[in-house]
Request: fold
Amino acid sequence: MRFHVMTLFPEMIDAAVNTSILGRAIEKGILSVQSVNIRDYTLDKHNRVDDYTYGGGAGMLMQAQPVYDCYLDISKKLDTDKSPRVVYMTPQGSVFDQKMAKEFAAEEDIIFLCGHYEGIDERVLEKIVTDYVSIGDYVLTGGELPALVCMDAISRMVPGVLGNSESGETESFDDGLLEYPQYSRPEVWMDEAVPEVLMSGHHANIIKWRHEQSLKRTKERRPDLYEKYVASHDKL
Ligand code: ADE
Reply:
């Protein structure tokens, strides 16, 4: 899978992707991340990529031309006939979730577009963007952190990125519930013992206990998810 990131701050992307599990997947050749500086495509003699907004109002807007030329350059270098999804990171997008992470993980190429200032000229967005994606209802200073968040969540859904011991199969959100609590050695820590059922070796009881814990935890911490879960299981 190949990620391409259109940004004014490529060093932000490069600094984050070469570490940890993403870095290992890049080394193994399962993933690649290419950050492309939109400023390299400006035709302005002072290297500017932003300008005032028509109609007035505070703040500057990223101009259409450098964004479009950057996109064309990335696209023409892709060795595929499929036109890639172009994901614009914006608080005005659909809120990113685990289901989207899985869906995006099936793509070969994804181009992320990171905005800055007050946003990007609407005309280029209309021409190139296929998906408007937000990482939550708050406003950040740019799209780089959101793009990194999405790339991280998508990557771990790509086969081979996680090792067996880090498997993404049974975990929070997989069935719409939060994950149950987990314990490791020692058996007693600060007078607190590991729940007895986990020491029993009784597999069916362990599965049942974990499911109950998932339900309880989801109800307490994420009542919104709990309601959805109950509603969808009532229908069955
Ligand atoms: N850019 C600024 N804020 C954002 C957010 N919440 N999600 C995605 N992109 C953004």
